[in-house]
Amino acid sequence: MAAVIAAVLSAVADVWPGTAGSVLVAGVGVVVGVLSTRATSRLDTDAQQSRRLADELFFHDQGGRRVREIADPVRVGVYAAAPMESDESGVPSPARTPPFVRRDRSPELERAVQRGGFVVVVGESTAGKSRAAFEAMRACLPDHAFIRPRNRPGLRAAVEVVQRERRCVVWLDDLQKYLGSDGLTAHLLERLLGDGTRHVVVLATMRAQERAHFLTDGMSGDATSAEMAREQREVLDRATEIRIDRTWTAAEVERARAFADDPRVAAALEHCDQFGLAEYLAAGPKLLAAWQDGWAPSTHPRGAAIVAAAVDARRAGFYRGLTPAALRILHEPYLRQRGGARLRPESWEQALDWATRAVYATTGLLMPEGPDHYVAFDYLPDVVDADLPPAPIPGETWRELIGQAEPAEAAYLGWAAYDWYQQWDHAEAAFVMALHGGHVMAAIGVATCQGLVRGDLDTAMDTLRSAIAVARADAANVGSTQLVGLTDQLAFMTGLAGRHSEALEIARQAVADSAVLSPGEALTPRIVVARSTGQSGDTALALQLAREAEADGIRLLGENHPTTLSCRFEVAVWTGYDGDADGAVRLWEALDDHLIGKGLGSVELILDVRRNLAYWTMIAGDTEHHGLPLFESVAADHARILGAQHLLTLAARTGLAHVTGQAGQPEQALRIAEAVIADRHDGTPAVHPVILNARFEAALWTGSCGDEEAAITRFDALLADVSEALGPDHVLVLDCRSCLSQLTGQGDGPQQPYRDSWMRLADW
């Protein structure tokens, strides 16, 4: 049920001027002053930097002002091909890139750039996406002005330059470096593209793996991480997206044979059964082999450790180049892990020279990014992430990156640690760092760690309330979208704490605040109102509100938009809670089919749908024929994809324990429940709702196994913890009292009978 709030953060940016969580709770008045001072100072600095960058121009260092004057694709980010020693005449090949071989998607790409607007070419590293985009631009827009911002401040400065051009291309190679509240937002994109009276193309490239990160509905699956970067996704939703595959088709290979007189193309053709042609030409496999070979003792183990550190920095979402000083600190844990002094590592100077040397044309293991800054050749993170499971990022790396990050980067690192790697402690440290740096929206990250990881919902709600007060007091710097997002999140946390009437009032306030937003943006708080209405007891009205939101979502955004899918999720939930479990099962099945058939949503959203399908299949009464096999499959998929300790994996395994017991296997049910309790993540408290549910299952099936005394002991301990953590009226408290009354034959008054765990388990 967690992904029902998949759009709660569609109104939330990952960063915005604010203040630290510790200060937020301490005093709102002080915070407002700090926020205003920091925001004003930051805006002044940004304005000065933008004026300076605008004066530097975006054309001349690329070879010319117009697209036709940009003759060398390497100058705009295309990887140079690994040079041959010489051709048959003994004359070295002068061209840094071989002839362009048209890709199957080239005609579609050319049509897109001719139309204008925002075009993103997506593919794996070394798939050839930058070259395909460059050639499409050259073929179709030769007389357009060429603008290449170097970074996020440069992009903001570029707006003024773009608006003076009647026809221009804004080139954003590696788009992820430009996304964020201090970079390319939907508002800034609209300013770049204008009102249609000018022909502007924002032409970008993006690695497929990083595109997948921005599309994720949150590996944590909860409301706060449903969109870890709402603004980034909002930008990407506006793009015409063209995918370029690393593996070449038979038609593409055949077209390449026409250029086999170039020895580099000829060599690549010999390996096209193993590598993509662009992959081989860019020397990706050779550089990977050089990195792997560098670990050998007495070769370049320190250099290999430097590369490993830079690779993990990119995997963590730290896209800015690293200085030699930073690399010197970061590489040490990797070298120690591999053997340290036993590897007989080279000197630091030799290691850095090896790692940064351009081995193949302009391509090396580490690529220069500005003076004395380096990033990993992006083929290498692709390879590391392709391993299942991917290698973990060391704690020392997280700490150093967070310490070096700007506030915006710290917020992004926090969501990366939380969503991609489930590193709760590092996530919280990053969010706190971002807040201290002046980003009020990072309060959501702090509250996420407080409430959903550590189970301290009261502190989480206090953090959000204070952040909302700051946002209202500084409306000039914190927009309505951010305010609505904070309020939506407070409503979600309040409902999770069981205070449903209060959550409903908060959600209604979010709807009121969203009046200034577009109708599509205003759908998100309406979803939260529907949820809170149902949790307050009016399931029929909740279903009506969810259906109305779904209809508007389809009309305004289309049936495939993430917010529309969230509305469908909500309709399925309240169809069930309003008494039609069979109808809910059909809706879950239809939503699952839609996601798979259309290739929509992340794997995490699909898991969430299937977990709910399993719950409602059981609620509908189908235990043995479909329920148990379905739950076994769902629990196995969660463990395989999210990991055994992930909260949603633990929730799925708790459901498996219950259905196993209902199927007549109480001993096995008890073993599963006890394993869930034992396997919880180190940072997950024993009073977390998921763990409390698992403890209930352990007590329940202990009694069914015949050990009533042990069951009573377990229920007594659980009742005390649940009452303190969730309040005396929580449904789990009532279930514990009911089971204790049945076991002991005693009670202090009429008790609500224990019916089943499914309705409670479905909350997770």
What does this structure look like?
With about 775 residues, this protein is mainly alpha-helical. The chain contains 36 helices and seven strands. The strands form two sheets. The chain has a five-stranded parallel β-sheet with strand order 2-3-4-1-5, sandwiched between helices. A hairpin with a 5-residue loop joins strand 6 (about 365-370) and strand 7 (about 375). Helix 24 (about 500-515) packs antiparallel against helix 25 and helix 25 runs antiparallel to helix 26. The protein is globular, with a radius of gyration of 28 Å.
Q: Structural class given helices, strands, pairing?
A: mainly alpha
**Biggest beta sheet summary:** 5 strands, parallel
**Averaging pLDDT over every residue, what do you get?**
82
Contiguous uncertain segments of 5+ residues: 1-47, 49-63, 86-92, 217-228
- Count of strand segments: 7
Distance between the termini: 5 Å
Cα shape: globular
| Rg, nearest Å | 28 Å
* Residue share in β-strands: under 5%
Helicity range: 55-70%
Helix tally equals 36
Please list the strands of the largest sheet in the order they lie side by side: 2-3-4-1-5
